[in-house]
# Entry
Amino acid sequence: MTINYEIHQNGQSRSFPDGDAFLGNAAESGEVAIYLGLPYREDASKTAILIELGTECLGVHTGENAGLEGSNVLGFARYRNGDDAPSQLIELVRQPATPQSAIDAAKMVFEEAGFSVSLCADQAGRIIDRLTRPKYNDALRFLDEGLATAADMDLTCKMGLGYPDGPIERLQRGGLAHHYDVSKALFDIHGAPAFAPGRRATVAKMREGK
# Structure
């Protein structure tokens, strides 16, 4: 079974840059509507409506209702490390009362396009950023404290833990200023000290645009 999807877009999408095959395979009209950089339009005739998210909650777009919120509207973000090319992982955001039919349709659209889909509740930062940003901030703090050089930390993570790259090289490749933006947004929402951007990320953000 194949589900057709339509795309409504304004400007560049972090999930699907210009030329991405997912954009090219969209139909003029589909059972699922995807909004990239535009306010969504309610449409009960659609099995699912998908909104591309940044760090914000889906509730910012749909509103909330004492934990009873949920409709055919879901959020999503394709994981991307800063300026790196997007990964093949989609984080799909549901609300407490999201119908299973909408979840199934959204997953099918992405999986048929070759993506892996992780379903998560509506929390700012979703799964990956809430897991990784504190680790990146720790690595930046360790570098400032002189615990190890950037090269030694990266080597330890690759050789000792089997990671494809280390935290410092990953941050620098993706952009320290981008890490600041994401980590600061999570810190403002959750208030946990682990999300407070590391000093070097703050410096990079202050230098941005100079």
About this structure: Strands lie at 5-9, 32-36, 48-52, 73-78, 89-93, 116-120. Helices lie at 21-24, 59-62, 100-112, 128-145, 150-161, 167-174, 176-190, 199-207.
